[in-house]
Amino acid sequence: MKVVIDASNLRAGGGLTHLVALLSAADPPAHGIDGVDVWSGARTLARLPTRPWLTARHNASLDRSLPERLWWQRVELPRHVGDAVLFAPGGATASPVRPRVVMSRNMLPFEAAERARYGFGVTRARLEVLRPAQARQFAGADGVIFLTAYARDHIVPQLARPPRREAIIPHGVDPSFRMAPRPARALADASAADPLRLLYVSTVSPYKHFHRVVEAVRAVRAAGLPVRLDLVGPSDHAPSREALVQRIAAYDPGGRFLRWHGAVAHEALAAHYAAAELFVYASSCENLPNILVEAMAAGLPIACSDRGPMPEVLGDAGAYFSPEDPDSLAALLRDLAADAPRRDDLAARAHARAERFDWGRCAADTFEFLAAVHRGAGPGRAAP
Fold first, then answer.
1. What is the four-CA torsion angle of 198, 203, 207, 209, rounded to 10 degrees?
2. Is the terminal CB of the chain with fewer CB neighbours within 10 Å at N or C?
3. Residues 145 and 137 sit within 8 Å (Cβ to Cβ)
């Protein structure tokens, strides 16, 4: 059998990172799969690894506009699938081919309270349209891959009918982020000149609550504790960016303890993890929080949001707070700063738990699931 991957909507970001890591770790012949064809634009195909079973497939339409790509998915792609199973890791495909497997990657369309954080505008409208569109994709697929049980349990009840098959297959973590926990520094050894270093890595979006984290750290500093917060990540939402910038300017105009670095290269992230002593993760909406997993692998003690799949991913290896309540986070940061042995314990637990997130395991489970769907659904064909 063969697998055909529709990667026509994967051009950057986590979806492309997942595809490259998945194919780099995969061994499809071990699951009875003779070959894998990947259809996408030229830039995406240039990122793929070289494997004897992997064939990069290009069509000029896939470098063009979204309507042209959708037309290609609907009309052209079925001609190239044959009796293969079609896999859409980006979460959607306009192709009617069966059997097909899609991946659930985005929780925002399925959580009304989180969508509402965007108010009224283009992003909110896009999310409102995306929810029924993705729901149809999942209900009509022969298989759906969820990244967490949380995502499955919240999405499936919103579908017109459950997927024919489903699997929970979490991503792996880049080996460059794996590092042994460092001994926790006692608060007494920190000072204004050498403060305890806190880190938050994410995209500045409404549901990431950056400004609340800044408010909490300001309160901790006001209580006399020597801490410094480094914020890393781009912004995709102007009001959230403005709320963050305004608070930094008001609370720490000299940049003594609040620093937003903006977007940094993927290769530079490991240095930020290595320099940190305590990680803060304040998101309230995730499918699988990849950044949280990175911090776990980096051997950091973690103060974590108690929302979404975060408790499922981190388990008893973290300390939790309400991401919308800066007082909740401030109290937790004061406790963790004062308790170096607890930070040591949390770091060790998180690092051990991060072993569950492995690209080799992800690839094996993914291709075994694709093979099982093919066996159960029969040869590829257009849906009636």
1. 30
2. C
3. no
User: Which residue intervals of 105-230 are DSSP H helices?
Assistant: 112-116, 122-140, 149-155, 210-222
CB environment 265-286: b (16+ within 10 A), e (fewer): eeeebbebbeebbbbbbbbbbb
User: Which residues partner with 198 through β-bridges?
Assistant: 229, 278
Residue 380's pLDDT is 36
**How far is Cα 72 from Cα 288, in angstroms, rounded to an integer?**
30
Express each pLDDT in 325-347 by its tens digit: 999 999 999 999 999 999 999 99
Report whether pLDDT(140) > 90: no
The pair of structure tokens assigned to 63 is 């470098």
Q: Are residues 147 and 210 in the same domain?
A: no
Domain count, the chain: 2
Q: Which residues span the domain enclosing 329?
A: 175-356
CA distance linking residue 35 with residue 1, whole number of Å:
7
Cis peptide before 49 (omega within 30 of 0): no
Q: CA 82 to CA 59: how far, in whole Å?
A: 17
| Distance separating alpha carbons of residues 137 and 157, to the nearest angstrom | 14
**344, 277 contact by CB (below 8 A):** no
Single-letter residue type at 181:
P
